[in-house]
């Protein structure tokens, strides 16, 4: 009996040990798959095409065991790294060509995720889901007619009655922002249906109320740059893209290299998708005005800055905003990621970065993050790129100062706070002599008031003698008074106070 029990105990131990070892091995494989999917598209010695082909073969071999895990990772990557949307769409396209059933399961999974994001009010995630679904048309995973039906359903939500305008705006914005990825494919296969969709959007935009627009403008004047409402600006960019036959020069399209493989694959159709109705507790993204500070004449050296109505400007700015959102809690990493922008050889990157950061800092009614967040990122950018970034930032400061007469009061205060903080990190060096003419203006004019308030903030960050020494004599009237303690018992008539 005892001998048998001993054998049973040993068998039980072996059984548990084998199970643990199997779980451990499975976890290792899952972690390896996740790492491979996450890192695809990063710099490597092999080409992107060969990496995608190899990864597709690895994933196909593991589909039977890790199907759910692969579905989840691919979907999360497409949402959390929207700049790699086309890479993951190509990967799904290759898997669909090898395994049609998996392609169908993936379509169901991404649609389910899209619906959940709409239901829970995760509007950015829902928009990236829609973008990914659209890009699957380019990879022959989805039929173009099926996608157009979905886009028409979403645009119909913009004509609902009794719902907030921000809800209607979001659905139109979500549809318009997918067209740079899939517009060419829809134009070639379903031109009349695409035209009908665009006409419906244009009718909505023409009758849409824009009472919020003046309150969100950084400057009260539209010279030299027009401050456009965000939907109007995107619509102008889409119209320009349409005139250019839906061709742009910014989005990487790795699936073109696999066209012969992908075009042989069977396509899926989307199930019927009805967005959830509006609830009173729902919150939607707020409207904004597109901030413009530079044009191509401001950056004469190097690559040309894309025009305000070119779709490339929208794509670049959205990508930079996404980097800020992902890394804003770690200023050093954020600055490094901004400077590692993948298309920096094609654009004047420093100008684009500075404009996007000031756009967030001056966003009305409130910036997305703490004001000091943007100031600290700009300081790190100057440290990492000392040959160009400080000059671009100085040029931006001059432009803002020249236009300060018509600047919104809240933005004026943020400009004062940022500039004083920035000076305090660079030994208070500035070419104050260039602003000496301000002393002849009325003391309450925005320009002398700006200098006075900046010096007042600098006083809080240093001491009076330092502020006095850094300011030229001509601007001495704007230097704040030296703060002195007031001890009432040492003043004239103090004896009466003691009595």
Compute the number of helices.
21
What fraction of the residues are assigned to beta strands by DSSP?
Answer: under 5%
| Shape designation | elongated
Class from helix and strand fractions: mainly alpha
The stretches of 5 or more residues where confidence is low (pLDDT under 50) are 1-10
C-alpha end-to-end distance: 105 Å
Q: Give the C-alpha Rg.
A: 29 Å
Q: Biggest sheet, in brief? A: none
Name the helicity range. 55-70%
Can you write the helix and strand succession as a string?
A: HHHHHHHHHHHHHHHHHHHHH
Strand segment count: 0
Mean pLDDT: 91
Report on the architecture of this protein:
With 499 residues, this protein is mostly helical. 62% of the residues lie in helices and 0% in strands. The protein contains 21 helices and no strands. Helix 3 (63-80) packs antiparallel against helix 4 (85-98). It is elongated. The N and C termini lie far apart (105 Å). Residues 1-10 have low confidence and may be disordered. InterPro entries: CBP80, MIF4G-like_typ-1, MIF4G-like_typ-3. GO terms for molecular function: mRNA binding; RNA cap binding.
């Amino acid at each position: 009996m005892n001998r048998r029990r001993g054998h049973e105990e040993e068998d039980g131990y072996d059984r548990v040990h084998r199970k643990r070892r199997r779980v451990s091995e499975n976890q290792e494989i899952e972690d390896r798959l996740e790492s491979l999917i996450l890192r695809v598209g990063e710099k490597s010695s092999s080409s992107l095409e060969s990496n995608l082909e190899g990864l597709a073969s690895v994933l196909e071999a593991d589909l039977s065991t890790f199907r759910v895990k692969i579905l989840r990772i691919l979907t999360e990557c497409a949402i959390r790294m929207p700049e790699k949307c086309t890479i993951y769409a190509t990967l799904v396209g290759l898997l669909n060509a090898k395994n049609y059933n998996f392609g169908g399961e993936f379509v169901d999974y991404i649609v389910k995720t899209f619906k959940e994001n709409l239901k829970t009010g995760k509007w950015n995630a829902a928009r990236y889901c829609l973008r990914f679904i659209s890009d699957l048309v380019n990879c022959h995973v989805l039929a173009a007619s099926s996608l157009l039906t979905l886009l028409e359903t979403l645009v119909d939500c913009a004509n609902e009655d009794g719902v907030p305008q921000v809800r209607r705006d979001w659905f139109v914005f979500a549809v318009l922002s997918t067209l740079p990825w899939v517009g060419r494919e829809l134009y070639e296969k379903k031109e009349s249906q695409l035209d009908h969709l665009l006409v419906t959007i244009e009718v909505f935009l023409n009758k849409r109320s824009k009472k919020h627009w003046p309150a969100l403008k950084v400057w009260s004047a539209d010279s030299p740059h027009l401050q456009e409402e965000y939907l109007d600006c995107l619509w102008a960019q889409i119209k320009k893209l349409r005139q250019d036959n839906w061709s742009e020069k910014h989005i990487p399209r790795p699936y073109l290299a696999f066209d012969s493989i992908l075009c042989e694959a069977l396509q899926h159709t989307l199930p019927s998708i009805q967005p959830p109705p509006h609830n009173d507790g729902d919150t939607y993204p707020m409207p904004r005005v597109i901030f413009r500070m530079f044009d191509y004449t401001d950056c004469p050296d190097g690559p040309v800055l894309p025009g305000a109505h070119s779709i490339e400007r929208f794509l670049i700015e959205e990508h930079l905003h996404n980097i800020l959102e992902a890394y804003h809690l770690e200023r050093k990493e954020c600055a490094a990621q901004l400077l590692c922008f993948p298309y920096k050889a094609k654009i004047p990157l420093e100008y684009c970065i500075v404009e996007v950061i000031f756009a967030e800092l001056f966003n009305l009614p409130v910036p997305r993050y703490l004001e000091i967040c943007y100031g600290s990122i700009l300081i790190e950018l100057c440290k990492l790129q000392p040959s160009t970034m400080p000059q671009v930032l100085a040029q931006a400061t001059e432009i803002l100062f020249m236009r300060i007469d018509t600047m919104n009061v809240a933005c004026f205060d943020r400009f004062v706070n940022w500039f004083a903080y920035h000076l305090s990190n660079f030994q208070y060096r500035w070419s104050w002599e260039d602003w000496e003419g301000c002393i002849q203006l009325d003391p309450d004019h925005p320009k002398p008031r700006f200098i006075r308030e900046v010096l007042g903030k600098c006083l809080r960050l240093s001491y009076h003698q330092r502020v006095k020494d850094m300011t030229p004599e001509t601007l001495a009237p704007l230097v704040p008074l030296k703060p002195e303690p007031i001890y009432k018992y040492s003043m004239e008539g103090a004896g009466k106070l003691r009595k």
